[in-house]
Amino acid sequence: MEYCNCFESPWPADELLMKYQYVSDFFIALAYFSIPLEIIYFVKKSAVFPYRWVLVQFGAFIVLCGATHLINLWTFTMHTRTVAVVMTTAKVLTAVVSCATALLLVHIIPDLLSVKTRELFLKNKAAELDREMGLIRTQEETGRHVRMLTHEIRSTLDRHTILKTTLLELGRTLGLEECALWMPTRTGLELNLSYTLRHQNPVGLTVPIQLPVINQVFNTSRAVKISPISPVARLRPAGQYMPGEVVAVRVPLLHLSNFQIHDWPELSTKRYALMVLMLPSDSARQWHVHELELVEVVADQVAVALSHAAILEESMRARDLLMEQNVALDLARREAEMAVRARNDFLAVMNHEMGTPIHATIALSSLLQETELSPEQRLMVETILKSSNLLATLINDVLDLSRLEDGSLQLEIETFNLHSLFREVLNLIKPIAAVKKLYVMLNLSPDLIEHAVGDEKRLMQVLLNVVGNAIKFTKEGGISVSASVAKPDSLRDPRAPDFFPTHSDNHFYLRVEVKDTGSGINQLEIPKVFMKFVQSQPLAAKNSGGSGLGLGLAICKRFVNLMEGHIWIESEGLGRGSTVIFIVKLGIPARLNESKLPFLHKGPGNQVKFIFSGLKVVLMDDNSVGRTVTKGLLVHLGCDVLAVSSGDECVRAVSYEHKAVFLDVSMAAVDSFEVAVRIREKFAKRSGRPFIVALTGNTDRMIKENCRKVGMDGVILKPVSVDKMRSVLSDLLEHGYLVESQ
Amino acid sequence: MEIVGQLQKQFVDFSTSLNHEGFLDEQYLQLQKLQDESNPDFVCEVVSLFFDDSEKLLNNLATALQQQVVDFKQVDAHVHQFKGSSSSIGAQRVKNMCVAFRNFCEEKNLDGCLRCLQQLKHEYFLVKNKLETLFRLERQIVEAGGTVPVIG
Fold first, then answer.
1. Which among A625, A633, A668 has CB closest to B85?
2. Distance between CA atoms of B67 and A544, rounded to whole angstroms?
3. Between the ranges A172-186, A340-354, B12-26, where is the mean pLDDT highest?
4. Whole-model pTM over 0.95
5. CA distance B2 to chain A (A)
6. Per the database entry, which stretches of residues form a coiled coil (chain B) (predicted)?
7. Complex prediction ipTM
């Protein structure tokens, strides 16, 4: 044997198997070498591959494996030691690299797998988004359709057009086979087929409204799928194919009366129409959710459009009616005016014509009285005279009234003696009263001035009339007349809300009350008393034979109104007597003005008490000590002080009788400015409100500004001395404001 | 009559000193002017009212300042009242003390307020004392048969 340091081939020298192994090894090696090449080629081609160095490792592993197999080729035959060494080295290296790669793959393969998972996930997501996109697009389509439909429907105010357009557009948008509208009849018990899409002139089918399917649809605001064989859906003759799905929705019919001013329409008294929509019968189409939504929206829009149309119709009708009424009223007014003018003319003429013979009769009868007459003749002449006088008075009254009516009567204003007027009237009435054994009382209030300015004659006429009536309707007891100056509060009669007596320095309101213990007046008759030609007690009138009864009180009322006053009767009922009260405005004679107002005298100190005597003021201060001191100060000056400690009390207590209100402004708990505002509001409607003066210990300019802003008449700085308060009061009463705010 | 003269002189001196020392100012004189036949006890009534009111206020102030959490607004309100009533009476020193007190209230200075309260009490009792003395003198004069002199 040669000593060649060779290794024996481990394999038996079986030729065929050897050959196969040899070839396989060769091909394996080839493959193993080409794999990395392919990988490198393709990786170079692809843009992204994150695991390059893994590839290197893997490449090394494969190459080494390939190398191993290649070298294996030489080991089939006897080989030298070098080859064995190389083989061993290769195998060792391969082992190392393979192990390393195996270890690495443990990390890599999960990553790779997750990549795959992510890819799958993304694919799913993409599919989902696609689906959603499809849906959104469909919805947008629907939205567009609805908008277009709404626009079409709302662009007209004609009911028929609205409905026809609705059906048409709905049919077009949704691809309907048939679309119909059932309207409730007048009775509300049936539904009448009013409009359909295909058949332009519906047959006039009616269906009772109480069907369960109809109730089902009416009870919900959603579109409801109904059976194609229900009576409302049987619109077409039965076809060969399966009828398409049918959907019905309610359409609210809103009336004008449903819209209250402040509320939304009441849902309980609704009437509904029924809209039925049919899909084409030979398609397998089904109602989709978005289509149902579309239908519901359209139904609502139709309801609104219909109600608009209805409202418009109503308002046009109302306007036409109003115009007609206006024309009629105008005509009536003109006719009335003409009638009044005609009557006044007639009255004036007739009075004049009638007056002349009457006056002649009176004159001649008086002359006749002066001649020699026998007793019967004298009696006759006296009767003639009396009757003529009565007639003359009546005619004069009528004339006065007609002049009063057309406003041509002027009051004759002059200064007269008020007290003597009353006495004269009573003197006139006393004889008649004495005959009926009635007492007559006169009470003149002490503050009633003696002289006044007004129409003496007509005032006397009014007084005479009222007093005369009192006497006439009284059988026993008597009458009492009282006259006084009316207080501002008592001037307001709740029955005459338009009577707003205004206060001023040159006038006063005379209030006269004539109370009698006579037959009284029924409450219901009171309004009629002042109406012309109405007599409530004809029998009594016959007995007393008074003068001008029919017109008397009406004329009194006119005169009193002319004197800017008010007259009314109060009575507790039949048999309980009655009281006639009237208030008239009289002037105060000018030259006596100064002495009427006692405040202007600026006398020396010991006359202090009398100057402000009885001047009513209100004082508000929440500090008890301060309040007592200021009250004492005002009382010392002669005022009648009402001291309060809270704003509410102050506002409540202030009245017309008070000439001034003093508000302490340094109070913490009460906002005096607010109180001032409230006081002004209380007296906002009329003049003559009390002066509002602020008392403050603070010399800050802001206080003065705020006082002025709030409308106070002045500011006084505390502490207040007697002299300062005196001058403040004088200033207020003389000038109406504080000359210097101190 | 000697006694009356003496008492009257005492009264005048005392009143003048009260004025000079600043216990009572012109306002008090105004109050006296308001007293007349129709209102003979006016000054006395007002002063008694002042005493009652002040004592109540001082108690309220003490309570308010002893609270865990002092409500300075409330304290200020009380002092404001006190200031008002003392200036209505003419108690000048009391009023000035109130003004200082209010400043401390604005600063929310508790110590300052407590100190002020003590001084306020002090001033109040001083002026109360003086007024009571004044009234006593007046009573003595009247009992002795004289008339109370009017100052100013």
1. A625
2. 88
3. B12-26
4. no
5. 32
6. none
7. 0.87
